[in-house]
Design brief:
265 residues; alpha+beta; four-stranded antiparallel β-sheet; 8 helices; 32% helix; globular; binds adenosine-5'-triphosphate; ATP-binding cassette sub-family B member 6
């Protein structure tokens, strides 16, 4: 990918990365070292991508027997819409993303994209329609040819090098993140809005301010969706989301997400 301009500041870099639908590198490196857990069916066919409708229906999941991590999770993301996953650390947000990539198979229920059960399609084709960007993890399915294929175990050396370079940038962004001022945050939101336009998007939101405009917010607790709705609806409900929001607004913005923070390595 040839860039025709040099970013003038970190926001420029960030924006460029979002535009290129770069990857959440932490997860990617984990992934390279991980053994392939699921296999394609013998007669697996490519995903026939149409509008990008994502459905989770009564999904149950556990990594190891005995401890259920997701319990009866159902939601639909309509084509072009944005859904935000929020909830305390360990509530299952990243697990939902991993299942969408089919790093694991569900134990009950099903996940469909444009009506096709993802366990029946070729993994490579499934993943080729999903991109990830850092900070808050944003997924969108689209035919983005230049996307580095998230989760492609057979990545070339060049791709890994690219990944490493981006990981370095990513790390610097992570350290920069605490210094985010309102203006920068606004800019990031604007660029996210741009990149999410016309793409089905799932945001794992660690800063609640990035979810205000989501079409649907899913609040997870101990593997269950305990609240759902738009920002204003959930605020007026005065439940868990409203509590999280109040907590984040009341000053401890930078360490704000200590309980919704992802582990940065
Ligand atoms: P965070 O905000 O900290 O990223 P999360 O909401 O994304 O948290 P998950 O990463 O989905 O939470 O984890 C949900 C639960 O599954 C946690 O209790 C976690 O310990 C457990 N878990 C995650 N990955 C594995 C794994 N590979 N094997 C076993 N248990 C796991």
């Amino acid at each position: 990918i040839i860039q025709l301009y040099t970013p003038l500041n970190w926001f420029g870099t960030y924006y460029r990365m979002i535009q290129n639908s770069f990857i959440d590198m932490e997860n990617m490196f984990e992934l390279f070292s991980e053994e392939q857990e699921v296999k394609d069916l013998v007669n697996a066919a490519p995903l026939r991508f149409r509008t990008g409708r994502i459905e989770f229906e009564n999904v149950h999941f556990s990594y190891t027997d005995g401890r259920e991590i997701l319990r009866d999770v159902s939601f639909t993301v309509m084509p072009g819409q944005t859904v935000a996953l929020v909830g305390p650390s360990g509530s299952g947000k990243s697990t939902i993303i991993r299942l969408l990539f089919r790093f694991y198979d569900v134990k009950g229920g099903g996940i469909r994209i444009d009506g096709q059960d993802i366990s029946t399609v070729l993994q490579a084709s499934l993943r080729s329609h999903i991109g990830v960007v850092p900070q808050d993890t944003v997924l969108f399915n689209d035919t983005i040819r230049n996307n580095i294929r998230y989760g492609r175990v057979s990545a070339t050396d060049e791709e890994v090098e690219q990944a490493a370079a981006a990981a370095d940038i990513h790390e610097r962004i992570l350290s920069f993140r605490d210094a985010l001022d309102t203006e920068t945050e606004r800019n990031i939101q604007a660029s996210l809005a741009k990149v999410c336009a016309n793409r089905t998007t799932i945001v794992v939101a660690h800063r609640l301010s990035t979810v205000i405009n989501a079409d649907q917010i899913l609040v997870l607790k101990e593997g269950q969706i305990v609240e759902r709705g738009r920002h204003e609806e959930l605020l007026s409900k005065g439940g868990i989301y409203a509590g999280m929001w109040q907590k984040q607004q009341s000053g401890n913005e930078s360490s704000s997400d200590s309980d919704t923070e992802r582990k940065d390595k």
